[in-house]
């Protein structure tokens, strides 16, 4: 398998959220053939979207990194990393989580299977993904889009409140 640039969204709203993101980042970088070329957005604190009432705020970030694996294998890696944080594979939708890793794109691939859709179908509606991604990949145009990530962010119709930047480098 050739290397692909993957966009991976990170989220955490349980436990030591910052530590959870850092640990997941380290685990992903172990599988990255060029870790020094990987880029990571700042971390933002965000209010929960489509979650139960009284759900804790999230910390969210996005990475762009190369992986030498097919999308389904990258998904399995993300699930394996989530399981190291005791996140059950079967769970309620949008339940609180110590770590959440979502593949948002894989190079110029369009992938649709029962397990995985790339680009992520909700990417364009989620400020908590677009804003961090716009910091590291503002001119990226995904395969099924005509607009850059920054243009998508500027055009977003979302009820999400503004994001609060927590830390630039993590």
If you had to describe this structure to a student in words, what would you say it looks like?
This protein is α+β, with helices and mostly antiparallel strands and 170 residues long. The chain has one domain (4-167): Alpha-Beta Plaits, CATH 3.30.70.560. It has four helices and eight strands; from the N terminus they run E-H-E-E-E-H-E-E-E-H-H-E. Strands 1, 2, 3, 4, 5 and 8 form a six-stranded antiparallel β-sheet that branches. The protein has a two-stranded antiparallel sheet with strand order 6-7. The chain starts with a strand and ends with a strand. The model has no long low-confidence stretch (mean pLDDT 91).
CATH class: Alpha Beta
Helix fraction by DSSP (H/I, runs of at least 4): 25-40%
Number of helices: 4
Briefly note the CATH topology name.
Alpha-Beta Plaits
Number of domains: 1
Strand content: 15-25%
Main traits of this protein?
globular; alpha+beta; 4 helices; about 170 residues; single chain; 8 strands; Alpha-Beta Plaits; 6-stranded antiparallel sheet; two-stranded antiparallel ribbon
Could you give the topology of this structure?
Layout: E1 4-12, H1 17-29, E2 39-40, E3 43-46, E4 58-67, H2 71-84, E5 100-106, E6 111-112, E7 117-118, H3 127-136, H4 149-155, E8 164-167
Antiparallel strand pairs: 1-4, 1-5, 2-4, 3-4, 3-8, 6-7
Helix pairs in contact: 3-4
